[in-house]
Each structure stands twice: as structure tokens, then as C-alpha cells.
Amino acid sequence: MVSFKLYMLSLMKDERVGPVEFVLKGVLRVLSWLYFSVVSLIDRVYKHGFRKQYDALTPVISVGNITVGGTGKTPFAIFLADYFLMNGKKPAVLTRGYGNDENKMLEDVLADVLVIKGQDRVKGAYRAGEEGKDVVILDDGFQHRRLKRDLNIVLLDSLNPFGNGHVLPRGVLREPVYALERADIFVLTKADRVGEQVTEETIDKLRSDFKGKAIVTTKYKIHGLTDSMSAVHSAEIISGKRVYLFSGIADPDYFKFLVEKQGADIVLRDDYPDHYVYTQGDIDGIARKCAENNIDNIIVTNKDFVKLKELDISAVRDRLFVLNIVLDIIGGKEELSDRLNSISSGKNS
Questions:
Q1: In terms of domains, do 66 and 170 share one?
Q2: Which of 11, 21, 271, 272 has the fewest CB atoms within 10 Å, i.e. the most exposed one?
Q3: Each residue's pLDDT tens digit in the chain (349 positions)?
């Protein structure tokens, strides 16, 4: 099942070629036409007012994307929650309630923030207002249309901001690219992976195709590592060490990129599907590989660790570290702050 999911994802990303893949892509293309028809119908229904949008009365800021996974929506939602806390606000985060790893990560990291889980976002937004919260952050909300939002933030992966031009399931686009017209702010994530020239080319395209939108560029920085006993260590602890990476995230390549930048020697790497649920058998296999390959450190993401700690990790506990990352805004910071401040105070003034 794991290998099948990864195989299908590689097809959608055009990473596989061959006669069998050619036929499968043809089938997926037909399904994409059906998907496109449904998405277009939903867009017209809301655009022309045939379905009601609900106003929460509390300012709502949506964080979303237009491609499947990997843009860093949840870390950006955490960044926003921290931003509002530091500015004296009382934020709430709405999450769909599935993708349980991300829900747990939100609850662990945002201990002082109300995290409301559930597919009814309108109900969740009303609850946030009733509990005295003065700004609502809608995690993964761009395709959700029932709840009105005051600010639509769309994250785009700098390496592949517009997918391969195909919607699901032939490609990785959740909506056609023209849907980006609904956005207010574009956030280019992981800009350090592509360099300044490619980033500027993407910015120029966004400015040309979607005039008047704010554009923010970001990257992630390593902010130390946490061991399995919750002690925090400097990132230098992995420099020159024989490292085993494994993760169940949408973009494991960027995870590798960050660890390699820190000077680690990545000896082993296992990529599981996004939201993968680890088993005790996986832990046993990881422990065996560590022993066979003289591994110094195992490095995982926070999203993985919230699931791993529910298992018996005693066999790998001494080697296991969580990579801590923080968002670093490298362009458009002032404009982002201005928009966030104006929106968060607009309905309460």
C-alpha cells in the first residue's frame, strides 16, 4: 500500500515514464476532466451567490494552497498564531479534524491557543467568537468556501508553484491555476531551495498574471533539535554525524535539504507517504537498520514524532531527534504585517 501511494504520486508529478505509465496517465487525465468539471461548478455556485457564505463576525484569515501537500500550511498557521499572540491578540486555529498528525502538532506547539477540530468550519468559527477569540486562522482553507474570510493567504512551493498544469488526479493541482485570483497574499515557501533568480521569475509571473496581490518570500531555518526526552540541543550536534532520515511528509526532499545544510552525513533515508501512520514493526525495522549501518542519529520531523511517541521507541530513543524549524521571512515582511494588523483589528474596531 505504501509503495502504491508513492508510485501514484510520482505519476501525478510526471516523475515516471514508460508504456504502462503512458496508459495510466491517460486514465488519470480522463478522471481529471471529471474533477475539473466538479471544481468549476463549485466555483460558479459560490461566485454567483447560489450558495450562501457565512460571516463569522470575527476576522478570519485562511491559510491554504493550490497543490497537494508540501507547501507548509500548518507551520505557517503556527507562525500566524504566534504572531497574533505576540501582538496581544487571542487567536484560534480551525483544522478539519483529519490528518491527525497535524492536529496533534498544532495542539503540542500551540499550547496557549484554542485549536478547534471539525469539518464544519462555520460552526468552529462561531465557537471561537463565543469563546472570546478575536482572530480565526483557517488551516488548509483555500478550497473551503462556506466560511467568509477577510484575508486569503495562499502558499506556493518555490520549486514547483503551479504543479504540472494538471488538476487531480492527473496532476497535483487541487484547483486550476486561475483560482489564485481569489488570493490576497501569495507566500513563496522554501525559496532557499531554488535561489534568487528562480524566485524572482516566479514573482514576476505572479505580478503579471495576478495584479495587485501582495507577495511574501520565506524559507525555514533549523532552530535546534529536540531529543526524545524533550531536551533541546544546538543544530551543530548533527554536523559530521552518520544520520538516518525518515519521514511521512509531503516534501521529504526539503527535509533532506535542511539536514544536509547542517553538515550531516545522510547514510539512510526512508520516505513514507504523507500522514503515514507508523507501526511497531516500522520502529523495529528502523532499529535494525541503525545497528547494521552504525547510525549516530535518527532525525524526524515534529509531524512524525507526534505519532512515534505513541509507540514503544525504547530501541531507538537514544538516537532519536526531532528537527525544529522556524519560518524566516526574507521578503515582503512589512506588507504582510500591515495586512495582518489591519484585518485582525477591522471587525473589532
A1: yes
A2: 21
A3: 557 888 888 899 998 999 999 999 999 999 999 999 999 999 999 999 999 999 999 999 999 999 997 899 989 999 999 999 999 999 999 998 766 778 888 888 898 899 999 999 999 999 999 999 999 999 999 999 999 999 999 999 999 999 999 999 999 999 999 999 999 999 999 999 998 999 999 999 999 999 999 999 999 999 999 999 999 999 999 999 999 999 999 999 999 999 999 999 999 999 999 989 999 999 999 999 999 999 999 999 999 999 999 999 999 999 999 999 999 999 999 999 999 999 877 665 4
313 and 199 in a common domain: no
**CATH (domain of 234):** 3.40.50
Distance (Å, whole) CA 269 – CA 200 = 32
Same domain, 124 and 246: no
- CA–CA distance, 162 with 38 (Å, rounded to integer): 20
Whether pTM > 0.90 for this model: the answer is yes
CB 53 within 8 A of CB 141: no
Q: Which domain holds residue 309?
A: 221-326
SS3 14: coil
The answer to whether residue 25 sits within a structural domain is no
Which CATH number is 89's domain given?
Answer: 3.40.50.300
CA distance 64 to 175: 12
- DSSP string over 89-111: --EEEEE-S-SHHHHHHHHHH-T
Q: How many domains does the chain have?
A: 2
Cβ(214)–Cβ(329) under 8 Å? no
The CA distance from 306 to 111, in Å, is 14
For 97, the grid coordinates are 479534524
C-alpha–C-alpha distance, residues 74 and 102, integer Å: 7
